[in-house]
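Forwarding these from the shared drive since the link keeps breaking.
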Amino acid sequence: MPWDYPVFHKPQPQNAAPTRGTVASGPRVALPAERAYAEIAGDDLRPLLILRECDTCNGTDDALLSKGNDNQRTFLMSRWFHCVKLPTHITEVDHPFHALFEDKHPPHLFVSDYDGSNAIPLKGDQSRTELWEAMDSVLERSYKKSPQKAIRELNKIISQYDRWDADEKRLLEQIDSEIERNGPKSSKLKKLNKSLTKVRLKKEAVAQQEKDVSELLLTVKPKPKE
C-alpha cells in the first residue's frame, strides 16, 4: 500500500532572534480538526483513507487487507485515495492529529473526502464487501469518471501484463540459452531480440493504457492560497 506517514512540525515564529543551545519547543497540543485535516491532506485533493495503527496490527496492513488472496480490488481502488497511516499514540489527547480519532471508541480506519467530511468509519475487522462499499461511496462522489468502470478495465489490463510478462521471461530464457549454446554471434539471436523488442513495446503500450484508465479526474479544485 502507498502509505503516507504525516508528521506535524510546529511552525517557528518569523523574525525570531537567534538562540544558542537547546530551546524547549513548548508543549504538544492537538490541532483543531479542520487544521489537522489540512495538514494531512496538504496539496493532495484525493479522498482520504486513514488507518490508525494499534498494538496488535502495528507495522502491518491487517486492518485493511485480507490475509487471504482477495486484495486485488482493494489495491486497485487505493490508487485513487491519499492513504495515510497514523501511529498508535494518535489517541493521546495532546497528539497534533488527535481530532481525527477523538471518539471514546475510535474506529480503526475510515475513508472520507480530502477535508475529512463525509467520513465512513470502519472497525478493522470489516468484511471485504463493507470495505469496498465504503470506498466506492467516497470515490463515486470524488471523481468525475466511474471508478467501477475503471476497475473492470484495469482487471483486463492486469491480464495483459501477465501475458506480456510471461512472453518476456520466455524470450529472455531463450536468448540466454542460445548464447550459452552458440555464442553471442548466433544467427538466431537477431530474431529473438526482435521479438523481445516487440513484447516490450506491447508492455509500454499497456502501461500507458493503465495510466489513461486510472485518470478519473477529481471533482474538487484547489482552493486559492491565502
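-- next protein --
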Amino acid sequence: MKKSLGTMVALMVVAILSVIFITAKYSNAVNIGKDSRFIAYDNGTILDTKTNLMWAAKDNGSNINWTDAKSYCENYRGGGFTDWRMPTKSELKGLYDDSIFGNNGYHLTKLINLSGSFVWSSETTGPNTFVTSFLYGLAYEEPSSSARRNRTLPVRTSGRETTAVNETNTEAPAAAPAANGTTKQWWEKGYVPPPKVEEPVASVEVIAPPAEAPAAPVEVVTPKVEEP
C-alpha cells in the first residue's frame, strides 16, 4: 500500500513539473521576426495582428485528404496550445496577399512556409470540400477524398497570451467607494451606486415694485369776504 502511494505521489510530482516546464517554455515565446502585420515566434507560431489569428509556421508538408487534414489540425500542438483547428475559407482568403511573393512563390507572408499551393478549408458542400489556392487566391470545390497537391495549415484564435487587436477600450462606469476605502465595480457584490447629483435650483430674481411719485400739494383757496 505504501509502495503504491509512493508511486502515485511520484507520478503526480512528475506531472506537475511537466506542466510547469511546458508553461514556462511557451509563455515566454520570443519574437524572432516580423513581416508587416505578422510576427513570428520561436515556438513555431505566427501571429496575425490584424485578425488576431495564430497560424502554424508551416503546413503538414505532404499530400493529404480532407479527413486526415482535419484530424491533423485538431491534434496539432504547436506552441503548446491544444485548440488548433482547420481554417475557414474566409480566414485563408485573409491570409492571401497578391502583392507578396513568399516562399515557393506563393502569395502570403514569407514567415509561413507552404509546401503546396492548395490548402484545405473547413467548409463542406455535399461530398465536396473547399481548397484555397495561394497562387490565384480562389477557392475551389474538391472531393474530400482527394489528396493530390492539397495541404493543411492549422490555425487558432489567439487568446490572452497575446495582445488583442481592434479591441475597443470601454471605460467602466464610475463606482461608489466602499466602507473600507476600496472601490467596488458594478458587477461586484455590495456595489453601491453613487448618489445622484441634483442640479442647483436657479436663483429667483426679486424685482422691487416701482416707487410711486409723491402727490402734488393741494392749493387751499381762502374764500373772499365781501364788504358790508
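The domain at 28-157 is CATH 3.10.100 (Mannose-Binding Protein A; Chain A). The first strand starts at residue 31 and ends at 35.

- D.
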